[in-house]
Amino acid sequence: MDSNTIIAAVSIFTAGITIALGSIGPALGEGRALAQALSAIAQQPDEASTITRTLFVGLAMVESTAIYCFVISMILIFANPFWNYFLQANGG
Amino acid sequence: MDSNTIIAAVSIFTAGITIALGSIGPALGEGRALAQALSAIAQQPDEASTITRTLFVGLAMVESTAIYCFVISMILIFANPFWNYFLQANGG
Amino acid sequence: MDSNTIIAAVSIFTAGITIALGSIGPALGEGRALAQALSAIAQQPDEASTITRTLFVGLAMVESTAIYCFVISMILIFANPFWNYFLQANGG
Amino acid sequence: MDSNTIIAAVSIFTAGITIALGSIGPALGEGRALAQALSAIAQQPDEASTITRTLFVGLAMVESTAIYCFVISMILIFANPFWNYFLQANGG
Amino acid sequence: MDSNTIIAAVSIFTAGITIALGSIGPALGEGRALAQALSAIAQQPDEASTITRTLFVGLAMVESTAIYCFVISMILIFANPFWNYFLQANGG
Amino acid sequence: MDSNTIIAAVSIFTAGITIALGSIGPALGEGRALAQALSAIAQQPDEASTITRTLFVGLAMVESTAIYCFVISMILIFANPFWNYFLQANGG
Amino acid sequence: MDSNTIIAAVSIFTAGITIALGSIGPALGEGRALAQALSAIAQQPDEASTITRTLFVGLAMVESTAIYCFVISMILIFANPFWNYFLQANGG
Amino acid sequence: MDSNTIIAAVSIFTAGITIALGSIGPALGEGRALAQALSAIAQQPDEASTITRTLFVGLAMVESTAIYCFVISMILIFANPFWNYFLQANGG
Amino acid sequence: MDSNTIIAAVSIFTAGITIALGSIGPALGEGRALAQALSAIAQQPDEASTITRTLFVGLAMVESTAIYCFVISMILIFANPFWNYFLQANGG
Amino acid sequence: MDSNTIIAAVSIFTAGITIALGSIGPALGEGRALAQALSAIAQQPDEASTITRTLFVGLAMVESTAIYCFVISMILIFANPFWNYFLQANGG
Amino acid sequence: MDSNTIIAAVSIFTAGITIALGSIGPALGEGRALAQALSAIAQQPDEASTITRTLFVGLAMVESTAIYCFVISMILIFANPFWNYFLQANGG
Amino acid sequence: MDSNTIIAAVSIFTAGITIALGSIGPALGEGRALAQALSAIAQQPDEASTITRTLFVGLAMVESTAIYCFVISMILIFANPFWNYFLQANGG
Amino acid sequence: MDSNTIIAAVSIFTAGITIALGSIGPALGEGRALAQALSAIAQQPDEASTITRTLFVGLAMVESTAIYCFVISMILIFANPFWNYFLQANGG
Amino acid sequence: MDSNTIIAAVSIFTAGITIALGSIGPALGEGRALAQALSAIAQQPDEASTITRTLFVGLAMVESTAIYCFVISMILIFANPFWNYFLQANGG
Hints:
14 copies of one chain form a homo-oligomer.
Chain A lengths: L2 H20 L1 H20 L4 H31 L2 H9 L3
């Protein structure tokens, strides 16, 4: 196997695994927070707006860890500096 | 094995594993939130519309992590830049 | 092993594993939501129609992650672009 | 090993693993929903018909993920397009 | 190793693993539902017939996933189409 | 290694693993159901006969999944069609 | 390695693993049922005889899955049909 | 490696692993039952003799699964039929 | 494989795995804290501002562990000292 | 590697792993029983002597599974029949 | 592979894994403590300042274990004594 | 690798793993018992001496399983009979 | 690979893994204790000083296990006796 | 690889893993006991001195299992009898 093949294969595999593993934690965490938010609204309907606002700001923060993974995953596929180097080095 | 075969095999395997692992977290998180929503409606029927609205906005946010995985999976199958490169390089 | 054999073997294996792993999360999540729905109906029978409606819309959303896996699985078996390429390349 | 042997071995192994792993989630999810249904009937016997109806519609939805696995498993054994290709290619 | 040996070995191993893994989920799910049924009967003896009827219909549904595995397992041992092909091809 | 040795070794290993893994789920499920039955009898002694009857019918159903494994295990040792084929083919 | 050595080694290893794994589920299940029985006796001493009787019949049923494993384990050591075949075939 | 060495090594390893894995389940199960027994005595001191008697009969039953493992382990070390065969065959 | 290829492949794989594994803990931890915050607001609406302020300061602290991983991941892709060394050494 | 080296290496490794794995279950089980005993004494001080007596008899029974492992471990180090055989066979 | 390549590859991989694994525990621990702090503030608003102060001192202590990992990770990338040695030894 | 090296390497590795794995169970078990003891003292201060006495006798029993591992670990390092044999055999 | 390379690679990898794994337990344990401390302060504000003092002494004790790992990790990087030996032996 | 290299590499790896794994159990156990101690002080402030004293004696006992690991780890690095033997044997 030449260098280009190895780098491409590793990039493809890593990009997939990164977002796959990286989506487990945020999805579970957001699901838990969302469940508690609905319970809190049912318990204290008058505070629904405060609860909802805090919920969405917090969800955005949890989502940020999934987005880190998505960013790395996208960089590996579309803006991979190692791949660009080997393309130039091997006259790709 | 030539380069094309390796890249294709890795792409196929990664595409499947990505969506398979990536669906576990969102499905469990959404299931939990949905379960709590039903419990909240039963407890506070008058707030059903607020609860349902918050639920579906939240579910969409949780679903987004599954969609990241689906997007990566689809890119790897139908718009894989590494595959396109090797097709051109090897005159595919 | 020639290219066609490798691509076919990887496609078969990935198709099976994708739907197998991808059915665990949705099944558990749906089971949880369904269980809570029945509990909510028993607690608040007058809201049974609201609960049931929310339940089935939510279940459809959870089911969607299983369907992503099923779609990828079917694509890999019946509309696999990599397989089509190798069939043409090798005059299959 | 020739191509036919590899494809057959991978198909057999994948077919078994797919339904084996794919039955864990639905069985646990259905068991949980069923348990809660019985508890709900004991708590609110007057709603037994509503609960039972919702239960069986919901169980069918959970069962659907097991059926996806069973369908893929059966396709791999009895209608495997890759196997058919190799049978023709090798004059099987 | 010739083709017949490989196919036979893979079939034997897969048949065993399929039913072994496939019995874990249904057994746990049925055990849970059964436990809750007994608890429900103790709590509401007058509804014992409704509970028992719902229990056994539900258990049959859970059992179905174990039966899928058993069917695949039996097919692999006694009606394996790949094995039949190789027996004919190799004049077995 | 000749074919007979491979088939025998795989059959022995699979037979043991099948019943070993297959006994975990049923044993845990039956233990849970039995525990709940005793609790139910203590709570509602007058219903002891109904509870016990439902318990043993249910246990038989859970036990069935263990028996599937035991049947496959026994078939692999004493009525293995693949083994019989190789005995004849190799003049065993 | 000749055939006899392989068959013997696989039989020894499988016999040990079968009973080792197979004792985990029954032991945990029996421990749980036993614990609940003692709790039930403390709660309803007058029903001690009914509880104890149900307990021991149930324990025997749980124990049966351990005994399946023990039987397979003993067969593999002392009445292994594959071993007997190879002893005859190789004039052992 | 000659046959005797392989059989001895496999026997030693299997004997150790069998009792090691086989002691986990019974120890946890007995610990749970014992804990509940003490709780039951504290709750209902007048029934201490019944509880203790049931406890020790039950513990013996749980212990039996550990003893199965210990028996297999001892057979593999001190009365291993495969080892005896190879000693005779190789004039050991 | 030459040195550049190895270093690039390891860097790509490690960058992905680092952020993927590193996002699980923070996402779960933040989800838990967020869930409790919503519950606390529902319980004590008058303290919503104190709770929210403490929540976001705390979330930032939890997020810091995810950011450590993101920093290492970015360093490995865009400012990798080992990669720079090999580029110079091999006249890349 | 000659036979003596293999047997010695396997014996050392197995002896260590046996007691290491075998101490996990008993330690957890005894810890649980001990914790409950202290709770029971605090709840019913008058029964302290009965509880303590039952506790120590029970702990001895749980400890027995750890001792099985310790015995096997010691036999493998100091009274290993396979090792003795090879010492004699090789004139050690 | 020459020495420099091996040391660099191991350093890159270890640096990533160290911070990735090392962030799981602190993130979960901090999330738990933060969740309880918010609950405590809601329960006892008058003690908010004491709770918050104790929380942040404690969080700093938990964070210290993540920082240990970050320090080791940074040392491995930017101040690795083994790497420096090989650079000098090989005239890098 | 000569015999002495293998035996020494296996002994070192086993000694470390034995005490490492063997300390997990006792530490968790003792922590649980200690936690319950403190809870019991707070609940029933008058019985503090009985509780403390029972606690320390029990902890010693739990600690014994860790000591078994420590003993085996020390034997493997400082009084290893296999090592002594090879030292003599190879004139070490 | 020469000796120096092996020792350096193993030292780097072990140093990272040691602190990474070693930070999981202390971080979770400290997080739990901290959470309970905040809960205790909210419940009994008058004892805040006693609780805080006990908390920090205890946290230091838990932290000690993380520090053991950090010490070993630092010794392996900066004061590794094996590394020093090979540097001298090979004239490094 | 010569003997010295192997022994050194195994010693380094084992020393790190031993303390890393060995710190998980004690840290979790101590964290649990500490958490309960704080809860007990809040519940029964008058017994704070008894609780604290029992806590620290108990923590020392739990810590002892971590210290066993630390001792073995230090012996392997600084007083390793196998290493000393090979240094002398090879004139190191």
